[in-house]
Design brief:
The chain is mostly helical. Helices cover 47% and strands 0% of the residues.
Length: 127
């Protein structure tokens, strides 16, 4: 459905942004809390170094913030359309953010690296 070579393919499948073959995260499940954000040092396929520079993923906090605001607004709109009270809307927003935190943290990292690394078709196989 989503073609290989697009940023969305890399983001949704947690794949290397350069070759889209190697896994980005060590664990495929975001609910393994001990190693939730642990990424491979290099891509197993194209050998891309994921940590481009020290503290590279600090910038992912801005992506995480944007995702959190979007989820909060979406949750509020749904609660508003269902004519729920303001306190129920607030509780719903907090509940959704707590529930989705592992996804948001991982998603923000993979989106952030995809902003800087682009797919290269000729480098999608091992040397």
């Amino acid at each position: 459905m989503i073609k290989k070579g697009t940023k969305l393919y890399s983001i949704l499948n947690n794949k290397c942004p350069k070759c889209q073959e190697g896994d980005f995260f060590v664990n495929s499940s975001p609910f393994k809390f001990k190693n939730n954000l642990k990424i491979h040092i290099n891509c197993s396929n194209c050998n891309l170094k994921y940590m481009i520079e020290p503290s590279f993923f600090y910038g992912a906090m801005y992506v995480s913030y944007a995702l959190t605001v979007a989820i909060s607004i979406l949750t509020f709109i749904i609660c508003y359309l269902l004519n729920l009270s303001l306190i129920i809307s607030f509780i719903s927003i907090v509940f959704m953010l707590v529930l989705l935190t592992p996804f948001i943290m991982r998603l923000s990292r993979i989106i952030y690296i995809n902003m800087f690394i682009h797919y290269k078709k000729e480098e999608n196989s091992k040397n």
